[in-house]
Amino acid sequence: MSQPENGQPSSPPTPPRGPAPKRRTSSGRTWIAIAVVVVLAGAGWYWWHGHRASADGSGSQAGASGAAAGGRQARGAGGGFGGPGGPGGPGANMPRSPVVVATVARRDMDVVLNGLGNVTPLANVTVRAQVSGPLLRVLFKEGQMVKAGDVLAEIDPRPFQATYDQAVGQLARDQALLQNARLDQKRYKTLLQQDSISSQQVDTQDALVRQYEGTVKTDQGNVDNARIQLGYTRIVAPVSGRIGLRQVDPGNIVSTSDTNGIALITQITPITVLYTIPEDNLPQVLRQLNAGKKLPVQAWDRQMRTQLAEGTLLTTDNQIDVTTGTVKLKAQFENKDGMLFPNQFVNVRTRIDTLEDATVIPVAAIQRGQQGTFVYVVDETNTVHVQVVTLGATDGTRTAVTKGLQPGQRVVVDGADRLKEGLVVEAVDPAARAAQLVPASQPRGRGRHREGSNWGGASGAGAGGPGGASGAQGRRGDGMGGDRMGGSASAAAGEPRRQRDADAVPDPTRNTPANPAGNVGQRPQQ
Asked: Helix or strand or coil: residue 188?
């Protein structure tokens, strides 16, 4: 080790250099930016919430005034109820349930039996060829009406004409032989009287004459048969009716063994309907038939909307179907307009009697429950009462009442599912009910409503929040109610509120008093 020189102090040892301390600029700036964002967000939320509360107060006040106006208007029109008028407000009286009523009438009513059946033609004939041969012509149009005896088609007649001519010639030859034999027979008898010939010759001539007579008869039969076969080459309609589609075209060879034939003819004027009724109703029908009465019968389409024809009952079947408990009946219709078609399904109405001065109600008014058969009666004060009734005969749409009702009373025919004894309702006539229905093509109002119901004033069922937008949104009734009064007021108050709400959202990119730092996405200058 070297020693320091004399008189010179020794220098202290240099300490080792360590890592320089880190600067805290980056983390500090991050925390400052986060704090600024939090402060700005809190200030913006506080300002927007206070502005919204003031807007909601004005909207609720407008909705309440609209609801109150709608309620007063509906009460002036009669039959409505006022809404709560604002958020959380108590409602007024509940509305009356609208029901459709009908008046009990006294009138003559037909006793009708309803049945299901099918149209059955009186004749259904397949036109077939009776001789075999080429089909030359078809003389009918498909679907046309034909009469019995009309020529429908022709088969080549030449072979049959030749056979006929041959039979005629054979007949003529044998007739000549017969005539000659008869002349000889006459001569032989004269000679026998003169004892010129023996009786044996006369007997032989008599036998020859009889032989020729038989031959002539055979020839005559052959001629007749050939004439018939020749006539079969002209195919004619066996019955009158409507001819169907053609089953064979000209040029084809037809024969008597063809199963399809040439066409099908169906007799449709007159025509019959075969239908069934319950066996319990058979005694009423037999009682009228045995008395010699003609029971009128009507045929209706499948939907029971259009009457197709009207006829009379012909007869009943001779037994009851035990599997279905029904009996078959047959009715006949003139069907001049051709509305009944073979095998068509029809609804049949048979009138078996007529009740005079019967108390009649619609079938829709009849209700059934634990107390039996009853109806809902609406009195002069529109109060509902349960009335037990005894029913009589029916015609399908109306029912006779033998006990429990008087003419002039009103019974409920629609809306009975929500009724009970003592309930006050709003009685609607069926004609007025139909006039109140809104067409499907008519645009609906902005407020929510129930079709066909009678609601008065505005409901005003706002919920304390955005009351101007929904507080006076009411159901539309028959009168001028909340949908027009309260709804318009709430809409007027709600539109400015939504605009103010959109303006109240702070924009972090704008330099406003609530956001003095401007764009919070940039770091603040140090």
From this structure: helix
CATH of the domain at 274: 2.40.30.170
Which whole-number Å values give the CA distances from 188 to 179, 182, 200, in the listed order?
14, 10, 10
249 in the same domain as 143: yes
Helix %, strand %, coil % of the chain (to 5): 30, 30, 40
CA distance linking residue 274 with residue 284, whole number of Å: 18
Three-state DSSP class for residue 156: coil
| Domain annotation covers residue 405 | yes
Question: Is 380 a domain residue?
Answer: yes
Three-state DSSP class for 62? helix
CATH of the domain at 396: 2.40.420.20
Q: Give pLDDT tens digits along the chain (526 positions).
A: 444 444 444 444 454 454 444 444 556 677 787 888 888 887 777 776 665 544 444 444 444 344 444 444 434 433 444 444 444 444 345 678 889 999 999 999 988 999 999 999 999 999 999 999 999 999 999 999 999 999 999 999 999 999 999 999 999 999 999 999 999 989 888 888 888 888 888 899 999 999 999 999 999 999 999 999 999 999 999 999 999 999 999 999 999 999 899 999 999 999 999 999 999 999 999 999 999 999 999 999 999 999 999 999 999 999 999 999 999 999 999 999 999 999 999 999 999 988 889 999 999 999 998 889 999 999 999 999 999 999 988 877 889 999 999 999 999 999 888 888 999 998 887 766 655 554 544 444 433 333 333 333 333 333 333 333 333 333 333 333 334 333 333 333 444 444 444 444 444 444 444 444 444 334 334 3
3 state DSSP class of 522:
coil
> Do residue 370 and residue 393 come from a single domain?
yes
Same domain, residue pair 292 and 302? yes
- CATH number of the domain that residue 137 is part of: 2.40.50.100
Query: Are residues 87 and 186 located together in one domain of the fold?
Result: no
The answer to whether the predicted template modeling score (pTM) of the entire model surpasses 0.70 is: no
Residue 221 tokens read as 């039969």
> Cβ neighbours of residue 381 under 8 Å, at least 6 residues apart?
424
Question: Does residue 143 share a domain with residue 179?
Answer: yes
Residue 143's domain comprises: 130-254
Domain assignment present for residue 439? The answer is no
Q: Whats the size of the chain, residue-wise? A: 526
What is the per-residue burial (b if ≥16 Cβ within 10 Å, else e) of 399-436?
Answer: bbbeebbeeebbbbbbbbeebeeebebbbbeeeebeee
* 151 and 248 fall within a common domain: yes
Residues 135 and 203 in one domain: yes
